[in-house]
User: What shape does this take?
Amino acid sequence: MADAPPPPAEIVLAVDGLRKSWGELRAVDDVTFTVGRGEVLALLGPNGAGKTTLMRLICGLLRPDAGRITLAPWPDRSLPQVVGYCPQPLILWPDLTCAEQLVFVGRMHGLSGARCHARADALLARFALTDRAHTLAGQLSGGLQRRLSLALALVHDPPVLILDEPEAGLDPQSRLQLRDIVRTLAHTDGKALLLSTHDMAEAELLADRVAIMDRGRLLTIDTPERLRADAPGDEAARHLEDVFMAWTGRGLRA
Assistant: This one.
């Protein structure tokens, strides 16, 4: 795991002063951070902290009220061209096969027919879905559907990948497989990953840095080791969960 933020030359995604409100609710409140090439940044926060809104802003699905999102070195490309988004709800077409879905999404990204089929074959192989290429998505298990959902986010080979609760509903074996995939995408392929999770073990094992968010604001961001050592309170935290509670509190939210 990295012991420090990536050097400026390696920064791929920069978020500066981002804000988004829904009426009187400020869901994202002056958030600033960076993600480097080959880095996994885990985003932690209670339900309603603003994590999903933040990720949808970065993906271009929402327009910010203020602030700036910079994707280097692609300042002239649109967010959907550079960012891949794997949402928590599984968004699949149950009556299309795995291969058909990958080709369809590739065409939506403007890839040629030949490129779509080549990417589909490569991603089916990478996610161990080749034997299910002609299986309808609605007939897949939950774990296989989650793998297909991640493959769909990678069809256009984006340098930035946003994962919202990617382990939701997975069994232990599927979780371990997914973690291996995430590590490879970041540390071998060099993608910049922003990973939202409620699973402290997932964050501890995968994240180079961890950001804790609550009530729309980014409270702290650093390596897991430094967060444990510098957690608010009289003693250093033993676990990332202790850090999370120290920053966000233990009370139930309405």
In short: The first helix runs from residue 51 to 58. Strands lie at 11-22, 25-36, 40-44, 66-71, 83-86, 160-164, 192-196, 209-214, 217-222. Residues 8-90+158-248 form a domain with the Rossmann fold fold (CATH 3.40.50.300). The radius of gyration is 18 Å.
